[in-house]
Amino acid sequence: MNVVVVESPAKAKTINKYLGSGYKVLASFGHVRDLPAKDGSVLPDQDFEMSWEVDSASQKRMKDIADAVKGSDGLFLATDPDREGEAISWHVLDLLTKKRVIGDKPVKRVVFNAITKKAVLDAMANPRDIDVPLVDAYLARRALDYLVGFNLSPVLWRKLPGARSAGRVQSVALRLVCDRESEIERFVSEEYWNLSALLRTPRGDEFEARLVSADGKRLQNRSIKNGEDANRLKALLDGAAYTVDTVEAKPVKRNPGPPFTTSTLQQAASSNLGFNASRTMQVAQKLYEGVDIGGETVGLITYMRTDGVQMAPEAIEGARLAIADQFGNRYLPEKPRFYSTKAKNAQEAHEAIRPTDFNRSPDTVRRYLDADQARLYELIWKRGIASQMASAEIERTTVEILADNNGQRAGLRAVGSVIRFDGFLGAYMDQREDGEKGDDDEDDGRLPEINAREKLDKSKVNASQHFTEPPPRYSEASLIKKMEELGIGRPSTYAATLKTLSDREYVTIDKRKLVPEAKGRLVTAFLESFFTKYVEYDFTADLEEKLDKISAGELDWKQVLREFWQDFFAQIEDTKELRVTNVLDALNEALAPLVFPKREDGSDPRVCQVCGTGQLSLKLGKYGAFVGCSNYPECNYTRQLSSEGGAEAEANGLNEPKALGADPHTGEQLTLRSGRFGPYIQRGEGKDAKRSSLPKGWKPEEIDHEKALALIGLPRDVGKHPESGKMISTGIGRYGPFVLHDGTYANLESVEDVFTIGLNRAVTVLADKQSKGAAGGRTRGTPAALKELGDHPDGGPITVRDGRYGPYVNWSKVNATLPKGMDPQGVTLEQAIALIVEKGGKAPSGKAKPKKAAAKAGADTKKAAPKAKAKAPAKKAAPKAKKTGT
User: Is it true that domain 2-130 has CATH number 3.40.50.140?
Assistant: First the structure.
């Protein structure tokens, strides 16, 4: 028997069916060890010696693998066909070697780009050794990421409280997002006008033509700058006679794009399906590992972490046969199409992402897939088959028109396209990312019959005012595209990098756009000021190129680390001399548009308008940065630094306190202010002034004297309870609006209830709370299952449920909380099992009992030992019994 090690249980189950009884396929569940998250895991002074740690879950899996290898004839390492997969095989082999279970057994590495019977059997018949340069590249990348993260992050913690972490690729990706935000803030909108005429042919057909020249000059985009010029030209067109000058019909061919790579799949899934990068990879992983289609488990797509754009010859042939069968010979080009990538630092060792069999059309497999799997498979199938289809044939017609108004002339143009043969468009239509449209895009609609030299009638002249818009914020898809263009990161890292930025609260996603949080802007400004080199795009791309050269065997990985560490360590040491004032001065300058927006009255935005003499500056507190006055504590003015910047606070009048009127009971002024934790109401001045934060849903611009008085007056007395005679009050607490009586809290439905609820209803709400509590102590039962994932290998259903503290996976008595950001509906059975194991559910209760029984037997043996001391033979036998029990 041979042992085969793969990464996931799903893959193990599929491959085991292909290989038969002569093989035992076991899963490593991904990486079996990693660098401990503590200082000293990589030692530059000891030639970058690395200390690896095996967690408890992986120890159990490695024990199972080691036990199987002991009695085997050989070992096949069949992890994924990329750098990470090679590293996992290396780790597994290294651990097994240290356990001394390998001996003289043959060890081979096998890779397959698709999990089909043919691909697996071909790979098993053609094994190889572990690719040492590929492992070296992994070690270099892992060491670099560790050295940057565990040396740069502490600098941030000391010099920039509230910052979470920095990373080699993460920080550069964050800089891209922040740089785009800075572009948007600096952008100055410009006015421009477009003019067009709705014209009619002698046959009565209408079409639209745009003004392209006037006064003997060609008009460029946004040439007409104001309404005065626009009205003058509109008057010219209103009184003009129109004649067709030329009509030119030109055939154009449009060629298909290559099959998907990791990044182009993520972009297309975002544009077409609304998937984020993580969701795309989760669904693709399932399609790759195998799906049961009518009693046969088979991988539906090839490996999904790749930057190659070429398909295997047999796949191209399969695609061509499917095209002829499903679309007809007219859609089949004479020769196969071949592609090469234009991405920087791309490695084309692997195929593009494609269906494993083009005969499995989306319609034939849809009933075996869930909705997301079906949609993504259809996208991959259509893009793959379109890549080998004939070009689309388009006829593009351009009509030039003369407008003459008593010698004043202007030129107009109408453009239209007709698809004469749809070609590959019959299978797949590309979508422009985010539907963005440039100012120079013309209407490519179909035109009616138009002949040269014929007269046209004018129906209407339109003059429309426009304003230039800033560049759009990045979406996940467009950021991945930009990172790929710059050569930053690798296909396998994009989704993880974006997730880290979100988890660290450096960016938020608003309407599928990435918006940098204030925390992210601060980190980027700090790194650009004091670690400029390490957030430069070219530097990061050059480092990626060196890692690729290591994997090709062209560079020594430790030499690359030595060169990097020498300069990086010196930069880290220099920051020890930094004072907080140096940091704040640099950040005040770098983030001036965010921190100190221009004021409408033209006054200095850094002068405190509360005391009139202090200078506003960034301050660093326990929870991050905020803006405060230099005259503190005499002037206690502060405001938060939000991702929307000071501009929004300015618009709401919150850059300085907004007077709302006096409290009639105390005579003190009520003011609306903005602090570190959001807008709030304050009564009076000084440290003892009463403050109350605005409840969720209350907008600063809607706060008036009445609302401020009600809010600052909380808690509100409702009346005495008719039975106890004690006061009932309402307020807004940590968990929302409430009613309180004699130490008993009951939740209210809305904030408005706090100010309007009467005595009778308050008594009813309290009574309901008490009756629920008396009904059994617990008012919360087991949550209903959001999703059923299937049965655990050891028996019992696994479900996803929504608990009080968020969604979690449940099996038997084990509850494992889902990681932040993981979609409850997207959890797979394999992910759930891994979470359960990490939580401590190593085996179901039925398998845990023998351990307890063994322990009990050991305890009984120890108790029996003293009684046996009376006889000499029993004395000698006791240690054996103890050893056996243990």
Answer: yes
Which one has a higher pLDDT value, 810 or 651? 810
Q: Do 191-255+393-467 and 262-390 have matching folds? A: no
> What pLDDT, in 10s, does the model give residues 130-152?
999 999 999 999 999 999 988 88
Q: Which CATH architecture has domain 140-187+472-581?
A: Orthogonal Bundle (1.10)
What average pLDDT score do residues 665-683 get? Answer: 81
Cβ neighbours of residue 128 closer than 8 Å, sequence gap 6 or more: 108, 109, 110, 111
Distance CA 17, CA 291 (A): 13
Write down the pLDDT at residue 886: 31
* Cβ(719)–Cβ(736) below 8 Å: no
Query: At a CB cut-off of 8 Å and minimum separation 6, what does 283 contact?
Result: 275, 372, 373, 376, 826
Q: What is the 8-class DSSP label of residue 698?
A: -
Q: Are 701 and 652 in contact (CB under 8 A)?
A: yes
Q: What is the pLDDT of residue 849?
A: 38
CATH number of 191-255+393-467: 2.70.20.10
Catalytic residues, which ones? 303
Asked whether the beta carbons of 506 and 522 are under 8 A apart, the reply is no
pLDDT for the residue 371: 93
Burial status of residue 312 (CB atoms within 10 A of its CB: 0-12, 13-18, 19 or more): middle
Amino acid at 441: D
The per-residue b/e assignment along 4-18, b for 16 or more CB within 10 angstroms, e otherwise, is: bbbbbbbbbbbbbeb
Q: Which positions ≥6 away from 429 have C-beta within 8 Å? A: none
Distance CA 343, CA 881 (A): 67
User: What confidence tier does 126 reach under pLDDT thresholds 50, 70, 90?
Assistant: very high
CA angle 826, 829, 834 (to 5 degrees): 105
- In 3D space, the residue among 815, 797, 794 whose CA is nearest the CA of residue 806 turns out to be 815
pLDDT of residue 154: 83
Phi/psi region, residue 829 (left: phi>0; alpha: psi -120 to 50; beta: rest), is alpha
Q: Tell me the CA distances in angstroms from 138 to 134, 554, 586, 726, 728, one per residue in order.
A: 6, 15, 36, 69, 65
Q: What six digits make up the tokens of 173?
A: 């990706």
Domain ranges of the chain: 2-130, 140-187+472-581, 191-255+393-467, 262-390, 591-712, 716-774, 785-843, 846-885
CATH number of 262-390: 1.10.290.10
**Distance between CA atoms of residues 306 and 353, nearest Å:** 7
Q: Is the peptide bond before 633 cis (omega within 30 degrees of 0)?
A: yes
From CA 331, how far away is CA 230, in angstroms rounded?
Answer: 48
678-683 and 690-693 beta bridge pairing: antiparallel
Answer yes or no: are the C-beta atoms of 58 and 36 closer than 8 Å.
no
Whether residue 687 has pLDDT greater than 70: no
Of 431, 112, 379, residue with least CA distance to 259: 379
Strand, helix or coil for residue 521: helix
- Percent of the chain scored above 70 by pLDDT? 88
